[in-house]
Amino acid sequence: MELLLITKLWSGIKPFFLEGDERFHGLPSFSLPFFKILEDADFEKVHVLLFVQLNSKQKKIELKLPERYRERLVVYPIYYRRYRDLVFKLPFAVAKAGSIVRKRKISVVIGHGMVSTVAGLVSLFFGVKNIRRIYGIGTELSRKSRLKLMFFHPLEYLAFTLPCEALIVTNDGSRGDELFRKLNGRRKKIRNFIFELNGVFKDIESRIVKPQNVGELPERYIAYIGRFEKFKGQLRMVDALSILHRRAQKIPVVMVGQIFDPAYYRILMTKIDELGLSEYVKIIPGLSWSETMYVLANSTLACAFYDLNLSNVFLEGLSLGVPMISINSGNSLEMIPDNVFVKLPESALENPEIIADAIQRLWEDEQQRGRLSQAAKHFARYNLKDWEERVNFEITLIKKLHSSE
């Protein structure tokens, strides 16, 4: 069988499409099924309609695929700059996808993120089955009215409402289930709605690889993992660290992540320098996932002060038994027991003193770190699904839909 995937160029898969780098860098909910499809002989050819965002100076970006996948993988880039460009290019994208479906006799289309709307429209106009995969919606969308979503966020609105065989939405704390119910009510256009936490690797410790050429890590340090953009909250960590240094608490921090927003990254670096923290903050961009897990696993404790915190990194930290501090922003962590991590109130998003106090207490309390570590591992072992189970479910669903033709 042949398959059509429709997706944006996510930060976690940029090395694969732009550098020919086969290593797993992140976004497992996309990357793991994608890699499994590429290795599965049942999928003779995989077509990817890839939405690539350009900056103001770029006209296009050259793609470079890993050599061993070049015969089985066909990529059709569609370039855009802003959200409205995506909306305006929707008819072209649907026509292009429809052309691929007809020429290659494709029966199943998989859409990812807000551009999965294209998969839904191709299904309507060309009679193929579609599965859509949404990775999270952000707190703002879940609070907007149906009319505002329809007119100001049409791609997201259609991604949640167009007919499909299955709509799979990640439970990342942004209440995608509530948005689904608000937009669809009792209508049954979507046959299966699946709303689950991301998985984890149950054998995560065996997958860790020590990074090369990054220098020595401090003997004790705080790990802060996340791509460099405002949403991931590294500036909150820096503000808290500055307070700790004024208290004569010289705590090293290691930050790891892809440079997603260069402007934000420059602001972060400038602030670290102005606050005199350059000696204590080590930044390592561009590590693979396995290398990133090494930094996380060997930390004294880890922090996550994202706008929403029920992330892959948070779940991976639980699996590794890393003592963690995080903010229950938007009640995104309400389903995680209080005894497995230090849960800060939402007010900590704007109050670095709360963050600094929590860090100082946990940094100095070895017994508390031990209790959190054991409780986190126990919770992960009995409450989080293995990625293999999650991926196999999605691959099996695709094959069933194809065989039912």
UniProtKB/TrEMBL annotation:
Q: Which InterPro entries match?
A: Glyco_trans_1
Q: What is the name of the protein in this document?
A: Glycosyltransferase
TM regions (residue ranges): 106-128
What Pfam family is a match, any one?
Glycos_transf_1
What are this entry's molecular-function GO terms?
Answer: glycosyltransferase activity
Locate the Glycosyl transferase family domain: which residues? 217-378
Keywords linked to the UniProt accession = Membrane, Transferase, Transmembrane, Transmembrane helix
Q: Which domain of life is it from?
A: Bacteria
Q: Which organism is it from?
A: Fervidobacterium pennivorans
